[in-house]
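Chapter review: from sequence to fold.
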Amino acid sequence: MNEDKGLVNQTEGTTDTTAGAARLESSSKINPAHYRGDEVMKIIERFDLGFSLGNSVKYILRAGKKEGESEMDDLQKALWYLERRLLQLRTQK
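The token string follows.
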């Protein structure tokens, strides 16, 4: 599920998985404080959680920490993604 192909260097047309990723990780829009660094992304990737479970984990770990979002809002989003994954599993049988 984890398909990190790296970032394309626009000037050289090459793939750069380290320098480009480091630039993105330092961006506050890509890596905001309510995610506590890149820990959440690393957990999702390490366990190969995929989209729905990864989003569930993301919302659980940030619950109540993002300005303008209540803990209830984040937990409801996490539950929505968990229910989506359960539906996917049920329909696979």
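Two observations follow directly from the output. Residues 1-16 have pLDDT under 50 and may be disordered. The two ends are 20 Å apart (CA to CA).
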